[in-house]
Amino acid sequence: MPPKRIELHGQWFRLFIPRQEIAQSVRSLSRRIEQDYAGRELTCVVILKGAFIFAADLLRQLSLPCRIEMLRAQSYGMQMTSSGTVHFEPTTVDIRGRDVLLIEDIVDTGLTLQALVHHLQSQEPASLQIATLLAKPAAQHLALPLTYVGKHIPAVFVVGYGMDYAEAGRTLPDIYALEDS
Ligand code: IMP
Ligand code: MG
User: Fold this and answer.
1) How remote is the CA of residue 132 from the centroid of ligand 2, in Å?
2) Architecture of the domain defined by 19-74+96-156
3) Is the CB of 107 under 6 A from ligand 1?
């Protein structure tokens, strides 16, 4: 049994999505993706660092040919974050003419994703869809369609299963939410 509460950097978090529930979400996403892409080869672009655990679980369940690219997305401070200016490493990935599935851990405002989609569209993929394990309510105001969402959650701050609080908590097998949020 995972602990009900944990402390990271002096903040308390409560158990929010246990591993069995995460696994169910990942399984149903993988089934949908398999059906939608049957007979095609996928190019998955994993957004580091947060999505690496979700991607590892999701992609091992797909019986589809799959290429993997990884991108590190970093916002340039508060001002630029709000304007959606995001820096990507590496700046180019080989996606021209490919069916691309962008894999993200969690979408909040979606500014990171919006900048990334804009960046990737300029490389002319055949198609581009988004898979995210979690989406917060703000994501509903996005112009971007989130095709594959594992779970819609309220506006709480979460850690675990790849997601961090100041680099702590990424390796937790369960997802925790900040208490009193
Ligand atoms: P955005 O607001 O959708 O642009 O979110 C930017 C990035 O912040 C996401 O890709 C996540 O990696 C991270 N993030 C958003 N919400 C949370 C959270 O609750 N916990 C940990 N990371 C988060
Ligand atoms: Mg992320």
Assistant:
1) 9
2) 3-Layer(aba) Sandwich (3.40)
3) yes
How far, in whole angstroms, is CA 156 from its chain's centroid? 16
In contact, 41 and 67? CB cutoff 8 Å: yes
Predicted local confidence at residue 181, as pLDDT: 66
Quick one: tokens of 86?
Answer: 């995001």
Rounded Cα distance between 18 and 30, Å, is 19
Pairing of strands 127-135, 148-152: parallel
Cα–Cα distance measured from residue 95 to residue 99, given in angstroms and rounded to the nearest whole number:
8
Ligand 1 atom at minimal distance to the Cα of residue 156: 19
pLDDT tens digits, the chain, 181 residues: what are they?
899 999 999 999 999 999 999 999 999 999 999 999 999 999 999 999 999 999 999 999 999 999 999 998 876 544 433 455 677 776 678 899 999 999 999 999 998 899 889 989 999 999 999 999 999 998 888 888 899 999 999 999 999 999 999 999 999 999 999 998 6
- Structural domain boundaries in the chain: 19-74+96-156
Bridge partners (DSSP) of residue 42 are: 66, 99
So which residues are the catalytic ones? 108
Instruction: Count the helix, strand and coil residues of the chain and give each as a percent rounded to the nearest 5.
Output: 25, 35, 35
